[in-house]
């Protein structure tokens, strides 16, 4: 993917005026709640009727980069997404505006910056930061993901996918979606706050096998739900995208990363570790199969179990990338130490990490695996593990 500066740049006014806000769709709480299955546990869904969003400081225009070509007007290219009023319109699926998001099936989530009190940063990702926020009207703490609107079409697609999937997802193993809105410079989406954080911050020197089993079973069930019910391949399975709360629940987030994005090796790997399956580095390989998520699941499992990313790490500036990629593509698959983990556990990881994607098990096969069978009825005290791991989190004490 080329640098944003080399792309044609578009500037358009995306301010949402009070007039437009008044016209925007107002749906009642009843409609919102009745149109979506209410989860038996968890905080109430936040709804806000505050009209005028407080805009972020920053450029008074929305910059869109990486769209169009020099011969056509750039607006024509992105009008598919941004209508003249400045709303982001995901054709037939959702309209995102300053006060929330309206989905084509009639559901609506109203939320905006005025209702939120920022409570600190939870982490930084490739596209922006994730903040802990307090939603004043409902007293609900949420995680708010900010995505800067220096958009490429691929990124818009990603946002669409994530919003669309998030709003459809009602599953114990998927984080809950509360709403989304945008200002002139950013798209924000609010999701369930998982108060122990992501697994990368919790595994410390490695998690015990029974805890590992519960996490892996939750991940397989979440991934199977995405595939069976929403026809989604996650594409970004890794420890930072598996979240835990202090009651011990384990949930997936950040699914639906656009294929256009993951095809870009440089972009995907700079400053991070790669969880991509070997076949994804093969440019002649077409498409991305669910088997590649199974690889990432296996790799995540080895990392959680051993407390270490199993390939050579990058130096933080993207250095070491070829060593890492070559180890993934040409090296032996990582495995679990057989003196520390049961035969069933080692075999589960080994099957996920088969270099040949067609040999990797499907989700139903994984759920039938002896490792799952061994632990599926075992009561594991996930709450204590989450509490204890949270108390050991290094990053919190640094603050
Ligand atoms: N819903 C959430 N609850 C708590 N922490 C979260 C939540 N979503 C994300 N985070 C934290 O924010 C960090 C940044 O997330 P993200 O932008 O998705 O980047 P990445 O997943 O690549 O780390 C994550 O590593 C995770 O620790
Ligand atoms: Mg993430």
From TrEMBL:
<dbReference type="InterPro" id="IPR011009">
    <property type="entry name" value="Kinase-like_dom_sf"/>
</dbReference>
<feature type="region of interest" description="Disordered">
    <location>
        <begin position="1"/>
        <end position="70"/>
    </location>
</feature>
<dbReference type="GO" id="GO:0032991">
    <property type="term" value="C:protein-containing complex"/>
</dbReference>
<dbReference type="GO" id="GO:0005737">
    <property type="term" value="C:cytoplasm"/>
</dbReference>
<comment type="similarity">
    <text>Belongs to the protein kinase superfamily. STE Ser/Thr protein kinase family. MAP kinase kinase subfamily.</text>
</comment>
<dbReference type="Pfam" id="PF00069">
    <property type="entry name" value="Pkinase"/>
</dbReference>
<dbReference type="GO" id="GO:0038066">
    <property type="term" value="P:p38MAPK cascade"/>
</dbReference>
<keyword id="KW-0418">Kinase</keyword>
<feature type="domain" description="Protein kinase">
    <location>
        <begin position="116"/>
        <end position="372"/>
    </location>
</feature>
<dbReference type="InterPro" id="IPR017441">
    <property type="entry name" value="Protein_kinase_ATP_BS"/>
</dbReference>
<dbReference type="GO" id="GO:0004674">
    <property type="term" value="F:protein serine/threonine kinase activity"/>
</dbReference>
<keyword id="KW-0547">Nucleotide-binding</keyword>
<dbReference type="GO" id="GO:0004708">
    <property type="term" value="F:MAP kinase kinase activity"/>
</dbReference>
<keyword id="KW-0067">ATP-binding</keyword>
<dbReference type="InterPro" id="IPR000719">
    <property type="entry name" value="Prot_kinase_dom"/>
</dbReference>
<dbReference type="InterPro" id="IPR008271">
    <property type="entry name" value="Ser/Thr_kinase_AS"/>
</dbReference>
<keyword id="KW-0808">Transferase</keyword>
<protein>
    <recommendedName>
        <fullName>mitogen-activated protein kinase kinase</fullName>
        <ecNumber>2.7.12.2</ecNumber>
    </recommendedName>
</protein>
<keyword id="KW-0597">Phosphoprotein</keyword>
<dbReference type="GO" id="GO:0005524">
    <property type="term" value="F:ATP binding"/>
</dbReference>
<feature type="binding site">
    <location>
        <position position="145"/>
    </location>
    <ligand>
        <name>ATP</name>
    </ligand>
</feature>
<feature type="compositionally biased region" description="Polar residues">
    <location>
        <begin position="9"/>
        <end position="32"/>
    </location>
</feature>
<keyword id="KW-0723">Serine/threonine-protein kinase</keyword>
<dbReference type="GO" id="GO:0071474">
    <property type="term" value="P:cellular hyperosmotic response"/>
</dbReference>
